[in-house]
Amino acid sequence: xxxxxxxxxxxxxxxxxxxxxxxxxxxxxxxxxxxxxxxxxxxxxxxxxxxxxxxxxxxxxxxxxxxxxxxxxxxxxxxxxxxxxxxxxxxxxxxxxxxxxxxxxxxxxxxxxxxxxxxxxxxxxxxxxxxxxxxxxxxxxxxxxxxxxxxxxxxxxxxxxxxxxxxxxxxxxxxxxxxxxxxxxxxxxxxxxxxxxxxxxxxxxxxxxxxxxxxxxxxxxxxxxxxxxxxxxxxxxxxxxxxxxxxxxxx
Length: 251
Known about the structure:
Radius of gyration: 27 Å
Shape: elongated
Helix content: over 70%
Strand content: under 5%
């Protein structure tokens, strides 16, 4: 019964860790489909042509680069989740504690590195309880890696949209200072400039908001998967590694 429950737990953990890459692919696929539809109806082309500041284009390029970074990080976290599952399978097997005698047998990864550090700490420590708080903090930082890049880009996209809004309103309001109501030609030219300024303000704001929201969604899924890997590492070490090392010291 316990073996069956353990197998189900391992399988569900494996599925949950791999799901981050699948969720990213589904989300990106839907985003690409939406982009193709907008381009098919000429809305993206209209935005690029109307935005003379090219801020919307910069936002789009930055968003694409960020998607590539999120994909790279998602692959890394999915790989760490798989490595953690393999370590759990090794250590939870009968006689699995013997693998701590030769930690080089464990697969390469951040969680196995953490286990190796625990073994080294246990060897250097005379006796007593093994406190892995500081090592867990280091593991959490390593797992997060460059995930903070997503928050930085999301904030940058929002501010680029705000910058485009300000520039657009400046362009829109600039002709009012020299506007002569009696000059119909000048009035017509001013109305054109005001329309261009409003288009810049609206398109850059829209691009910045949408880009910021999409980036936040992607990195939210990535952070959730990272937290799951860290939680699995904590449970693995607390239930299989540190008890075995402490028993070895007490014995």
